[in-house]
Amino acid sequence: MAKLEILEVPDPRLRTVAKPVETFDDELVRLVEDMIETMYDARGIGLAATQVNVHRRLLVLDVSDEQDTPREYVNPEILDSEGTETCEEGCLSVPGIYANVTRAERVRVRARDRTGNVFEEDLDGMHAICLQHEIDHLDGKVF
Ligand code: ZN
User: Fold this and answer.
1) Euclidean distance between CA atoms 116 and 103, whole angstroms
2) Which one of 11, 39, 81, 99 is CB 3.0 to 4.6 Å from 104, fit for a cystine?
3) 93 C-alpha to ligand 1 centroid (Å)
4) Structure confidence by residue, pLDDT tens digits, 44-60
5) For residue 84, how far is the Cα from the chain centroid?
6) Tell me, what's the pLDDT at 5?
7) What are phi and psi of 125, to 5 degrees?
């Protein structure tokens, strides 16, 4: 595994809109593993491929207290959302800055894992917030 460089604002590459992942191969598996390692190393709870200058729709997150439950979402789609919640968020691409952001409180997401298997999940709390934050990165948005 290898640690990847995280782009920071005002790097214009953070504004790139990512394209769907089409090929589920060894290269994708390696990217997922490298992104998880990079996220842990930076003490983040989420990382989008955009932030490591790969403009494909892929993100990883781990909102567990123990930081031992990495999750990956390839080509994530929000199917449904409910409620609103305002939370102070940080971002590995905007070191030292925290901002209040209002997002949906609960979301239903459909995505694929690194091998291409489709799954759907209902998320709430920090898991839902973090997923929405990372999807914004894939759309070229930084809070
Ligand atoms: Zn971020």
Assistant:
1) 28
2) 81
3) 6
4) 999 999 999 999 999 99
5) 20
6) 98
7) 60, -150
Low-confidence ranges of the chain (pLDDT < 70): 1
| pLDDT (0 to 100) of residue 3 | 92
Q: Residue 66 corresponds to which amino acid?
A: E
Residues 6+ apart with CB under 8 A from 8: 93, 94, 95
Residue recorded with tokens 């999750």 = 71
Cα–Cα distances in angstroms (integers) from residue 21 to residues 31, 32, 44, 67, 68, in the given order: 12, 12, 23, 26, 25
At residue 3, what is the residue type? K
**Residue 14 Cα, ligand 1 centroid: separation in angstroms?**
10
Tokens describing residue 26: 């060894």
Task: Please tell me the predicted confidence (pLDDT) of residue 143.
Answer: 87
Amino acid, single-letter form, for residue 23? T
ω into 10 cis (within 30 of 0): yes
